[in-house]
Amino acid sequence: MAIDPEDLPSGAGHVAANYPEIWDAYAALGKACSEAGPLEGKTLRLVKLALAIGAASEGAVHSHARRALAEGATKEELKQVALHAIPTLGFPRAVAVLTWIEDVTDPGGRATRG
Q1: How far is C-alpha 25 from the chain's CA centre?
Q2: CATH 1.20.1290.10 region(s) of the chain?
Q3: Quick one: which of 46, 80, 86, 89 has the most CB atoms within 10 Å?
Q4: Domain 38-107 CATH class label
Q5: CA proximity to 70, closest of 49, 106, 41
Q6: 3-class DSSP state for residue 105?
Q7: pLDDT, tens digit, 9 for 90 and up, residues 59-76
Q8: Which residues of the chain have pLDDT under 70?
């Protein structure tokens, strides 16, 4: 699975560039998992966003937020996923994640808020 390491976040890009056989196996596993059931498109991407939120992975939240937008999700849908983290993961985590999503949906917006 040829992928340009420049299109990936820095850590993943480093692995893809330096260990392409490992990256290809990882990408194939991700593809197989995505195809293992009926979820697809925007719904699947929102699930992946939720998993990234649960893992507290800022880079993955950024990536899945961008990809969800490309799949047709709205800013409001992404933010709703973050808000659903409040009862399970706690208010501070949800607030942090909401800012990570807003890095993608509203770049520069935090600087103008109080």
Answers
A1: 20
A2: 38-107
A3: 46
A4: mainly alpha
A5: 41
A6: helix
A7: 899 999 999 999 999 999
A8: 1-7, 9, 109-114
> pTM of this prediction?
0.83
Residue for token digits 């009926």? 38
pLDDT score of 10: 74
What is the amino acid identity at position 79? Answer: K
d(CA 54, CA 97) in angstroms, rounded, equals 9
Query: Which of 23, 25, 30, 29 lies closest to 8, judged by CA?
Result: 23
Question: In Å, how far are 6, 10, 63, 79, 97 from 89, measured between CA atoms?
Answer: 33, 27, 20, 15, 11
As given in the structure block, the two tokens for residue 64 are 């899945």
